Amino acid sequence: MIRAYKFLMRPTVGQTSALGEMLRDHCSLYNGALQERRDAYRHVSQTTVRYGQQSAQLKDIRAFDAERQGRWSFSSQQATLRRLDKAFAAFFRWIKGGEKPGYPRFRGAARFDTVEFPKDGDGCRWDSTPHDPVTRVRLQGVGHVKVHQHRPVVGKVKTISVKREGKRWYVVLTVERAVPEPLPRTGRAVGIDLGIAHFLADSQGNFVLNPRHGRKTAAKLEDAQRALSRCERGSKRRRKAVETVARLHRKVRRQRLDHAHKTALALVLAHDVIAHEDLKIRNMGKAPAPKPDPDQPGSFLPNGARAKAGLNKSINDAGWGVFLAILNAKAECAGREVMAVDPRNTSRRCPACGHTAKENRLTQAQFHCVACGHRAHADTVGALNVLRAGLARRKARPA
After folding, report:
1. How many structural domains does the chain have?
2. Residues 224-234: pLDDT tens digits?
3. What is the extent of the structural domain holding 241?
C-alpha cells in the first residue's frame, strides 16, 4: 500500500535561497530538454528525442555548468527529465484517443514548483529519529532542513519531493506500508448521492450540507483579482497582489480538503459497504456545444452556456472528485468496501414500487411516484437506489 505524507518545512534564510535556486535550475533543465525535442522534430527530419538520450547527456551538462547544474542531485535531474517525458507520453496518448490536448509548454520560474528525489538516500535523506525531537530532511545542495512533522510516518519512505506553495515550502513523502488491520465490522451499508443543494445525501435520510467554500470567498477573490489587474507587470506591488490571490485559492483548497476528509472519515467509521454513483465528473463540467443559426450564417442560437457555466462552477466548488478519492483511500486502510454503480435513473426510480419515469421527480428536491404515490426527498430516493444497486452488484459478483 502506497501512502503520501505532506509536512511543512522550516528552512533558514540561506536554505530558502538555495531551495529557490534548486527550483530555478531544474526549471532551466526542463525547458532546455523541451527545446531540444522541439528543435529535433522541426529541423532534423521529424526526429524524436527520448528520455534515454537526454538522460545520457546529463553527465556532460553537469560538467559544463558545474556551478548551477552540477550542485544538485543527479537522480532528481533524471526525475525532471522523466517528468517531461511523461508530459509528451500523455500528449500523444490523448491525441490517439481523439482529444485535442495542448502541446507541452515551457515553464516559467514561478510555475515550476516541485522537485522529486526518486529514492530516499540518493541526493536526499529523511531523518526522523525517535530520540531527536526535531525532524530534518537532508537535501543535496541545501543542507539539513527542519520539518514540522505533525504525525508519525508509518512504513518505508520511497520517494521525497520538495514543493513550494507561495512563500511556504513542503516536503512530500511517498511511503510503502503494510495493509493495516481492518476496523471492527459494523454490519451496516449505505448509499450516497452527491449533489449541489446538499453535498451528500445518504440512504438513511441524512444530509451533509454543501459548505460552498469557493462561493463564500468569491467576493474577496474578485477584489484581489481586480487589484492585480491594475498593477504594473514586474512591480513589487504586483508580486504582492499575486501572492494575495494565491493565498485565497490555497485557503479554499485547504477548506475543501478538510471537509472531504471529515465527511469521508465519518462514512468509513460507520459503515462496512459504501455505494456511490459512478459520476463522469470531467464530462459533467464540459461547456455545451455551440448551436449555429441556420437562418443567419455566422450567428449562433442560445445554448444555455451561461446557466451551464454556473452549474460547472458549483460542481467544481463541491469537489466531488477529491472527496471520492479520499473516500476510497480511507476505505482501503480501514478494510471497508466502496463501489461505484451506474447513476442512470437513480433519482427517477421509485424505491417502493420500482416504477421509473421522468415525471416522478417534480423538482430538484421533491419525488412523487405517479404509479404508487410514494413521496420522499429526491436525493434520499437516489441514495436508496444507489445502495440497492450496489448490494445487488456485490451479491452477483463471483467470489
Report:
1. 2
2. 999 999 999 98
3. 189-396
